[in-house]
DNA sequence: CGTTCTCTTGACCAGCATCAAAATTTGTGG
DNA sequence: CCACAAATTTTGATGCTGGTCAAGAGAACG
């Protein structure tokens, strides 16, 4: 099932980068949008800009939650493991996504970069202080949490009740337009993740994912430019499959 | 898989009941705890106390979200359906639980009473106005949403990667102490729901749930007083199974 | 280019679903 | 309190989807 290899990240293994919130391309898609321009300096003051290489960890399941993150570019996977190494990816994250919406004492999932990734890191105390002052942030976070909760319930329906082909179709239709900062031509989907990762997200094996891609291609619903770029030829049938 | 029968609820089919927040037994477990005693009258002013019979609906998936609810006693199930009727129960709700944490324009799940249930219903506009005034409520809601999100991720691991016996063990250990208002002796678990409902929650069939209960009993981990009350004889082994 | 990682394809298998029927519990009316 | 009907659960026989094991074909990277 899902084995994983993680290039762990030392305390300050991130490379620092600089940027200002005013020019942040992810701002429009993130909770930061709740802050008016004149308050952005408050964010800048407490944000640490980090660069994370593929496979490196932002948060590790079970570890104390000392920071929260806002992804500004790239993509990441969040997952949980069973003691014997089975992996369930609970979500893929893109620019604008917030890491640690669930404010628990310890992280409930591990989050690793899939592609090279940049993010803002906030010390939890700093973030809390800012939230206390600018309550709109809290509202934005609550709205985001609500969206995540709705998505989580759809994923439960998928994992509990859908067939392999329905799962893959759902994945391809529901995938957040991938990277809001880098839109693609309609009908084109970018899949930065591997077949194994798709499998671990859909509760399948990589072999089943591969065979199921084959089925969708043979049915004329899909075409694969290469492993990471697919084109939807029959949107209608794909959606019909996705709904179950 | 999961067929369902719903006794639908007319516009004002709920029986009204009266109660005051000060005396509410569910208050300690609910978001209302964020409000100090002196502000409770604000809640009372906008709360409509309703009584819901088993099988009746609080919210229906897809319908406009005009109200939010706070359950004060009894239990409910939240679920989603595929067009062909497969059901996935996304959660069981008990006293203190808030219905519609995800503030979407339309309900993302159907919520029905399992047992006779009482709840506070708030018109969404009223609730929003109160939240705007008493920001602590928003914080409590955010905290609750975070807990739900964490639980949802655990459920994804369960649905995507665990075996039947691991799923049932997880269910029995993770089940919220059932009804916080009605504590049971340690090791005793009350299951207000049917086997079919457990199956639809765990992504299994009722037959598999039944057989798996049998396995747990034969292994000396469980004893069944009756269908709705079980006793855990070997907590250690149950937890070991649950973790996977 | 060769090494390594990822993906595809095939053969076989197992866990859980499906179909079916019997047993037990629950509910109802007398 | 009993008898009967309906609903729920248990148990059994069989089958299918997707998992496992294995080998080979592409891509990617140095």
Describe the structure.
The structure is a homodimer. In chain A, a hairpin with a 2-residue loop joins strand 11 (about 220-225) and strand 12 (about 230). In chain A, helix 4 crosses helix 7 (about 235-244) and helix 5 (about 195-200) packs across helix 6. In chain A, the strands form three sheets. Chain A has a five-stranded antiparallel β-sheet with strand order 1-2-9-4-7. A four-stranded antiparallel β-sheet of chain A has the order 3-8-5-6. Chain A contains seven helices and twelve strands. Chain A has helices spanning about 40-45, 125-135, 135-160, 165-175, 195-200, 205-220, 235-244; strands at about 15, 45-50, 55-60, 65-75, 75-80, 85-95, 100, 110-115, 115-125, 190, 220-225, 230. Helices cover about 35% and strands about 25% of the residues of chain A. The longest helix of chain A is centred in the middle third of the chain and has 27 residues, at about 135-160. Chain A has about 240 residues and is an alpha+beta fold. Mean pLDDT of chain A is about 90; it is low at about 1-15. Chain A is globular. The interface between A and B is large, with 44 and 44 residues. Chain A binds a DNA duplex (30 and 30 nucleotides) through helix 6.
């Amino acid at each position: 099932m899902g084995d994983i290899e993680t290039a762990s990240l030392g305390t300050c293994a991130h490379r620092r980068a600089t940027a200002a919130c005013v020019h942040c391309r992810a701002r429009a898609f993130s909770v930061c949008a709740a802050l008016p321009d004149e308050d952005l300096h408050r964010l800048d003051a407490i944000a640490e800009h980090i660069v994370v290489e593929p496979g490196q960890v932002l948060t590790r399941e079970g570890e104390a939650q000392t920071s929260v993150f806002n992804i500004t570019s790239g993509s990441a996977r969040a997952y949980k493991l069973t003691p014997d190494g089975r992996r369930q990816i609970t979500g893929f994250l893109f620019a604008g996504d917030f890491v640690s919406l669930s404010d628990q004492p310890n992280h409930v999932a591990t989050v690793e970069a899939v592609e090279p990734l940049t993010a803002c890191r906030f010390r939890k105390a700093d973030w809390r202080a800012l939230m206390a002052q600018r309550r709109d942030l809290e509202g934005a976070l609550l709205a985001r949490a609500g969206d995540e909760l709705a998505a989580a319930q759809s994923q439960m329906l998928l994992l509990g009740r859908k067939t392999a082909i329905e799962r893959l179709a759902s994945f391809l239709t529901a995938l957040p337009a991938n990277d809001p900062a880098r839109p693609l031509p309609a009908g084109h989907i970018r899949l930065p993740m591997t077949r194994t990762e798709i499998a671990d997200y859909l509760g399948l094996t990589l072999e089943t994912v591969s065979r199921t891609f084959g089925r969708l291609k043979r049915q004329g619903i899909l075409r694969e430019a290469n492993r990471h770029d697919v084109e939807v030829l029959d949107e209608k049938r794909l959606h019909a499959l996705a709904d179950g």
